[in-house]
Amino acid sequence: xxxxxREGYExxxxxxxxxxxxxxxxxxxxxxxxxxxxxxAAVPPGARILELGSGVGRMTHALxxxxxxxxxxxxxxxxxxxxxxxxxxxxxxxxLDAGETFDVVLLASFLVHAGDVGVRRGLLRTCVRHxxxxxxxxxxxxGADYHTNVPRERVDPAGxxxxxxxxxxxxxxxxxxxAEYVFPDAVWTQTFRSRALTVPRFEEAxxxxxxxxxxxxxxxxxxxxxxxxxxxxR
Length: 234
What we know:
Blueprint: E1 10-12, H1 24-29, H2 35-42, E2 48-52, H3 58-65, E3 69-74, H4 77-80, E4 87-90, E5 102-107, H5 117-129, E6 131-140, E7 152-155, E8 161-171, E9 174-183, E10 186-195, H6 199-208, E11 211-216, E12 223-228
Parallel strand pairs: 2-3, 2-5, 3-4, 5-6
Antiparallel strand pairs: 1-10, 6-12, 7-8, 8-9, 9-10, 11-12
């Protein structure tokens, strides 16, 4: 069954485009950065990880190589077809109920900045629903100037260019962000909605769903380790 494009999301370029505007072929080409090392340093060896929004498995495969047991979740069957060596679950993250808990729930790709507050709450509730009592949630946040340092671009060592072309307000604190990925043989674009979250507002959003920040894992504050809020703290 073909999934509908999410409102405010769009993608162009060769190959299949997912409901949030991501191009499957593009994500198959993007290299994995230092994220797997950040994750590995923050969780127990061999942990069971629920990866929400795995895409084609860029981080999935790197985490498997480091000895983790990964269950990869994505709403795009085309994305999950590229995942190797991991159990996969296909469906919208905010509706997921796998009926089990995990040592680690991973919410990368700035998903916590979903423009729709209801979707964000659904994402965080999915994290809590699948989190073991003594487990943790690892969340990737946007950089502090993500919506203001625009336009900007970087040239990847692999030889392609990533541009954030614009971030235009569409109301209620949400921006429509347009990104371009330029390769020698192809160009992809993605337009998506993103809600800027200050650190206090981000922490408040976690607390609303029963989570608290345990610690920030990177100097720029973009990677966060969160844990359940105890009854006394809620």
